[in-house]
Write a structure and sequence with these properties.
The protein has about 425 residues and is an alpha/beta fold. The protein is about 40% helix and about 15% strand. The chain contains 16 helices and 13 strands.
């Protein structure tokens, strides 16, 4: 059962009944170093529950469900809202939300020199809604918005949604917005690909290109323009926890699925390597694994071209206490000074916005941050394209890049899990 949210930094509590409460109430334009955490019960989530749609299977563990229940929506109506919204998404995307497969990739395992007892297991999110895990994060945001409408908690015309993204998150957000005919503005960098821009246009999104401006504070100009839109009344359809805690809610379904799938591997999984840009994926997966009672070590992978998490981890020092990190946020986490560059361009966030949850999970499980050099990123992308049989992008294969970078340190008998997320476009 979920009672609400608590800020990891200042301790402020937000009741689950609050409508459109995206951020810590103490966050401000001049003090953005706050992030809400979902306060859950001590009862482990049943990761092995039967069913295919993760939002139906795990409904009772979702913050969205607790919010709607607290406002009087029946269990049947809550499930019906999930199913109906999923059907609308499928009508636009051609697929609805389903558990994604997890299996040993024999070709990758052989190419990287693992023994028959070890190897690489891949969680394949490339056939999820919009081709990546991003839609999972945003689906619970959308369910919160739709529930508030249906319950009559918010009236008047719909405020536009807003998101900053260069690819997968933008497409996921625009797909969900199109499914329910909700206006959306997407803030993208000048380097956004023509393929992505064409897809956004086809989904009816309003696209704003955001070059770096003289006079801007440090950080991503897309995020600056996104925050300006919020100040003018837009709703944060974001995949950064500090901007919208509800995105972490849906991301936890990945962790619950993985906990169940890890348990089914003969001999178990030894380590999970997750690509990190803004950090919501690794944070949500870590939350889900913890809530399901799974203590597999989590390694967070960034590229040498943009690695603010590793920098913060090193500055924090052992024992890498997340509560200490929260108090020292300003001195530990700040925008990457150099222009971020990598073939894995979807994880080049200037800051790791959701870094506190990752630090907590790494410290609790014996995980670590890994910085993949560009040669490892390129090799992982090639392995994904030519060997794995899964059509994923360099960004989607960035977790594998972490394994490539540290392969010499990994036993041939170890079982390593990675997430492929982001179809090659």
């Amino acid at each position: 059962m979920i009672a609400g949210f608590r800020c990891r930094v200042c301790g402020a509590h937000v009741d689950i009944t609050r409508i459109h409460q995206w951020t810590c109430p103490n966050a401000s334009r001049d003090d953005r170093h706050h992030v809400l955490d979902i306060v859950t019960s001590t009862v482990p989530v049943d990761a092995g529950a039967a069913g295919d749609n993760p939002f139906v299977v795990f409904r009772e563990a979702l913050a969205f469900d607790a919010f709607a229940a607290a406002h009087g929506m029946t269990a049947a109506a809550r499930e019906a809202l999930i199913v109906e919204t999923d059907d609308l998404v499928a009508a636009v995307d051609g697929t609805g939300f389903r558990r994604s497969p997890f299996a040993r990739n024999d070709a990758l395992s052989d190419a990287l020199g693992f023994s028959p007892d070890g190897g690489v297991w891949v969680k394949n999110e490339t056939r999820q809604v919009a081709g990546s895990h991003k839609a999972r994060h945003l689906f619970t945001v959308l369910l919160h918005l739709r529930a508030a409408e249906l319950l009559g908690l918010r009236g008047g015309p719909r405020a536009p949604l807003a998101i900053s993204s260069c690819g997968n998150a933008a497409i996921a957000a625009s797909t969900l917005a199109a499914a329910v005919s909700w206006p959306i503005t997407v803030f993208v960098p000048p380097a956004a690909s023509a393929v992505v821009l064409a897809r956004l246009d086809g989904l009816g999104a309003r696209v704003v290109v955001c070059p770096r401006r003289t006079g801007d504070p440090p950080g991503d100009p897309c995020v600056h323009r996104f925050r300006e839109a919020l100040a003018n009344g837009a709703l944060p359809f974001a995949v950064q926890g500090p901007e919208n805690v509800w995105c972490l809610d849906g991301g936890r379904t990945l962790g619950w699925e993985l906990a169940d799938q890890f348990a089914q591997v003969d001999g178990g999984i030894d380590r999970l390597m997750v690509q990190v840009g803004g950090g919501a994926l690794a944070t949500s997966v870590g939350m889900g694994l913890t809530e399901a009672g799974c203590r597999i070590p989590l390694d967070a992978v960034q590229t040498a071209g943009c690695a603010p998490l590793r920098r913060a981890w090193d500055l924090l020092g052992a024992p890498h206490d997340a509560d200490v990190a929260a108090r020292r946020w300003t001195e530990l986490m700040w925008p990457w000074e150099q222009e971020p560059r990598s073939l894995a361009d979807g994880i080049l966030d200037d800051e790791t916005y959701d870094w506190l949850g990752i630090v907590e999970r790494m410290a609790a499980t014996g995980g670590r941050p890994i910085v993949a050099d560009e040669a490892s990123v390129i090799r992982a992308a090639d392995l994904a394209t030519t060997v794995s049989g899964i059509d994923t992008s360099p960004t989607g294969a960035a977790g594998l890049a972490g394994l490539v970078a540290v392969r010499a340190e990994i036993s041939d008998d170890e079982r390593i899990a990675v997430i492929f997320s982001g179809v090659r476009r």
